[in-house]
Amino acid sequence: MSRRRPSWLSLIVGAATVAAPALLFAASEPSAPWRLPEEASTYAGRVDGIFNLILWITGIVFFAVEITLLVFVFKYRAKPGGRATYTHGSNRLEVIWTIIPALILVFLAVMSQDSWAYIRNHFPASGTVIDITAEQFAWNIRYPGPDGKLDTADDVVTLNQLHFPVDKPALINLHSKDVIHSFFLPEFRIKQDAVPGMTTRVWVQAKHTGHWEIACAELCGLGHYRMKGYLTVDTPEEFQKWLTETAAENTTESK
Amino acid sequence: MSEALAVAHPHGVHPAPTSFWRKYVFSLDHKVIGIQYMSYSLFMLVIGGLLAMLVRWQLAFPGRPLTFMGKIAPAGMPGGVMLPEYYNSLFTMHATIMIFFAIMPLLIGAFGNYVVPLQIGARDMAFPRLNMMSFWTAVPGAILIIASFFVEGGAAQSGWTSYAPLSAIQPKGQTLWLLALLVLGVSSLLTAVNFITTVINLRAPGMHFFRMPLTVWALFIDAILLLLALPVLSAAMIMLLFDRILHTTFFLPAGLIVSGTAWGNAGGGQPLLWQHLFWFFGHPEVYIMILPAMGIVSDVIAVFARKPIFGYRSMAYAMCAIAGLGFVVWGHHMFQSGMNPYLGTTFMISTMVIAVPSAIKTFNWLGTLWRGQIHFTTPMLNAIAFVAMFAIGGLSGIFMASTPVDIFIHDTYFIVGHIHYVLFGGSLFGAFAGLYFWYPKMFGRKMNETWGKVHFWLTFIFFNGVMFPMHILGMRGMQRRIYDYTQYAHLKGLQPLNIFMSFSAWALGTAQIILIVNFFWSLRKGERVGNNPWKSNTLEWQTTSPPPHENFAEIPVVYHGPYEYSVPGMAQDYLPQTQPASAPLASH
Amino acid sequence: MKINSNLVWIATLALPLAVGCGGGSKEEAPSFDAGNTAATTATTAAAAPAGAPAGAPAAATPAGGATISGKVTLAGTAPVMATLKMDADNYCKTEHPTPVKSQEVVDNNGNLQWALVYVKSGLPAGASYPVPAEPVTLDQQGCMYTPHVFGVRAGQKVKIVNSDATLHNIHPLPAVNAQFNIGMPIKGMTQEKVFDKPELPPFHIKCDVHKWMSSYCGVFSHPFFAVTDQDGNYKLTGLPAGTYVIEAWQEKYGPQDQTVTISGTDTKTQDFSYKAS
């Protein structure tokens, strides 16, 4: 078999093909479409870390597989008088390319589990307790009032306006009145379905103050796309002020 | 696996039909039924594609009127402006039609029916009448699903996944959707029983299991998947139907308040039960859709690389592993559903593991190409594209297998991108490979090669133009099933990308016209072929094109496996299964 | 033999078709006011003036000349109305820089606006009044329904307009007429609907995206209905002579009946008084 191109050239081309997009990626603005959004929560970094780890691994596999495919397709195209190599395979290769992917995937599972347990299995002992009842097509948000208890007369209720202070985790109980909705804050890397007939819980702590939008991430009817909420992360003082002001606005029955 | 050698049928399985109705409409012949399924599924593929074109309009230009649609669908698009509920029904029906009425009938009903008896050397399926009933049951299913567009309230609009309670409280179109799929379920079960029996009992003498082409392996395993998974869906759909029309509460908890009014149901139901039942079927379903394409692609690559399949036994075992593992990963669709997080861990592990057999298969396809003599016919181009695109789809699946990453990408366009890479990039390119490959066998003429290649390249380029950016949209947090993402500050900037994707989609749709014209033109004007235009080893190519009634003049005897290409010491580079080797062959 | 079993299959499969299509109309969707996507500002009824939107004068049954008018009042201290949570939607918030109160009880110095007053009984037997061709307009403006309470003739078109650049879904909840729930995502979109059966008490109309939005609609077989203005006044004109039960309906305090006898071209006054409890 004659070698038409030196192998070092293939290596350079291969490396360049991988490096170029990687460098472009790294050099781009955080708000560029091909980058993950800003990390607004304390655990967003964990999620992004695993995402990027998977991106590297799958990226390398992707380039390896596709480049190999392209090289084979060109190198082994039919030539007059040519003959294919008659082989039924290689058991040794089968073992190798079973075990290595399996090891990589188990590794990814183990790496993921730590963050999963951190986000889902452990609930902070204290924080800002918030009750959110989703319905078609709004978020009913409820805070315990001065008595510190939910579902009492002095609760502070808002429609689509979520506030919590930056210094503590927000402990959110999700309910739904009618169909399944999903509470989604992309920049915080949090998503949790709100299911009628059960209470689901999610917690999150912000890294800094600011404003974001809440999206519904489970198809819930014609208004699904407009089930938009507004999150404001306040300083502790701003939060108390807002809570008191909002409580004052809630007079008698609200619609 | 038992090596039961089938006894050749000495007499005909059914006499040759004479009347028009018996020949072309209520035929018992698997070849006619296969072509009937092919017509059915290609027609529904076009409908499903048109629905997607409309979806892409809304995504590119949210709220902009599309005037001619105002006349076709005045309820859903008054004045040409798409209503959100109509958008919801468009993507619901796009997915439903593509999955149940296009891909499955094409891969299983069309190619499965046509090719399997031929490839195992049988005269027909084990149960020809069941086969006919299976097709004619599928037809009312299609009628029902199309009719659902015209009922009050429009077609189903809760997504193809039809999650309760939303699907329980939607208008009438949802009931028709359930009925259509229940009817289709009957059709599929009849087919599954037929395939399994045929492969086990009707193999020609010498056709051991490990001498079957991988297409047959794939369809055999597929039929077992169908048999085990589909009844669960049917049961769930009956329960949902009862919740809708008989006021049972399988999926409805107590205290539902819809739009300020109490729904009035008794309660005791659990919405998550629907998801468990649906996905218990739903996950094997996606493997039902990919396995036949994998089988077809294996056969096509071996033929056009003129090489045995690399790792034939591994390929067969990998498909078995995919099928088996496919039953224990369903919870990965429910990581964020409120399901116990510990189940998230177990399903994550099984989901990561199921990537392994698919990886094995991808490496084996590469191994088959290695040191081959590759002929770039249209079927081969589509098969190579399958490998390239399925790799992307499979790799993107790893992101969602990781539970914490899934918190972010669940229900976003990242998932939609993954779906389309495996189902279009995978199943559909595999189906196209099968179509161009077996067309000459079915009709005695080849499809035009030049136009086949034009169709392939345009499809490949525009397919990637639509689907690859979906991963980017998902990374930015764009939800799926969203009528107008520009309502969100963090998503507004994605409109240019969406416009690019939509233009790609419309070009992709237009490019399919080439296939349609080529298909019909070639029926009359295509280059005529003999038995074996591709110089292939498998049994279907050892009889006429098209095969006669009862397929073979004599039941063939099989001497070796299906991939004996480029055997050293032979003048020709292929060795049909019916031709004994002059010297002992290497074992698999 | 074979043909028989085929027929059995076909007959069996026809069953789901029957089930799916039966049990309800396979009617085409009602026709809409298509083609009106340019921004249309609400043309009618910003606030309800006295007597509007009453029906056209009766043609089939001879027109009467009598008038019943009056005031609807509230005795006692009116309840404090809740402030509407307009900040649930940025668009609504920008439309209303100052707080907006609920319209459940609109009390201006004891005068109740938005009460629906109508003839409950007493019209001549067999009386029929032609339905006006002109539609009644219900507008969604500033994330509020205009008018807040209205009456419409059975069979009369209701033209629903979205004058807001935000999604409203129009979701009436009648008990007798057919319910519907239609998205109106684009400013200027209109829908035309008809309630074809008379219906009282007035049913609620709501928007699921903006929970405070609230309108009430009564459907009548005759034109003798009116909504009180900001001074609590109403007027029913063109009544033939007779003895009538006139009913006032207020969304919080419910219905109140009074009997009035009129003849010829009388103008009679009939007031209604609710007690704030």
What do you see in this structure?
The complex is a heterotrimer of chains A (255), B (588) and C (277). With 255 residues, chain A is α+β, with helices and mostly antiparallel strands. Chain A has helices at residues 7-27, 44-75, 91-121, 236-249, and strands at 128-135, 138-143, 156-159, 161-165, 170-176, 181-185, 190-194, 200-204, 210-216, 229-234. In chain A, the strands form 2 sheets. Chain A has a 5-stranded mixed β-sheet. A 5-stranded mixed β-sheet of chain A has the order 4-10-9-6-7. In chain A, strand 1 and strand 2 form a beta hairpin. In chain A, helix 2 (44-75) packs antiparallel against helix 3 (91-121). Chain A is elongated, with a radius of gyration of 26 Å. Chain B is mainly alpha-helical. In chain B, strands 1-2 form a two-stranded antiparallel ribbon. In chain B, helix 4 packs antiparallel against helix 5 (128-147) and helix 9 runs antiparallel to helix 12 (378-401). Chain C has 277 residues and is mainly beta. Chains in contact: A-B, A-C, B-C.
Secondary structure layout:
The complex is a heterotrimer of chains A (255), B (588) and C (277).
Chain A: H1 7-27, H2 44-75, H3 91-121, E1 128-135, E2 138-143, E3 156-159, E4 161-165, E5 170-176, E6 181-185, E7 190-194, E8 200-204, E9 210-216, E10 229-234, H4 236-249
Chain B: H1 20-25, H2 30-60, H3 67-72, H4 84-120, H5 128-147, H6 166-169, H7 173-201, H8 214-245, E1 257-258, E2 261-262, H9 271-305, H10 312-325, H11 341-369, H12 378-401, H13 403-409, H14 413-443, H15 449-475, H16 495-525
Antiparallel strand pairs in B: 1-2
Chain C: H1 2-21, E1 66-75, H2 90-95, E2 106-108, E3 111-113, E4 116-121, E5 136-141, E6 144-146, E7 149-153, E8 157-162, E9 168-172, E10 182-184, E11 190-194, E12 199-206, E13 214-220, E14 225-227, E15 233-239, E16 242-250, E17 254-262, E18 267-269, E19 272-275
Parallel strand pairs in C: 1-18, 1-19, 5-8, 7-13
Antiparallel strand pairs in C: 1-15, 2-3, 4-14, 4-16, 5-6, 8-11, 9-10, 9-12, 12-13, 16-17
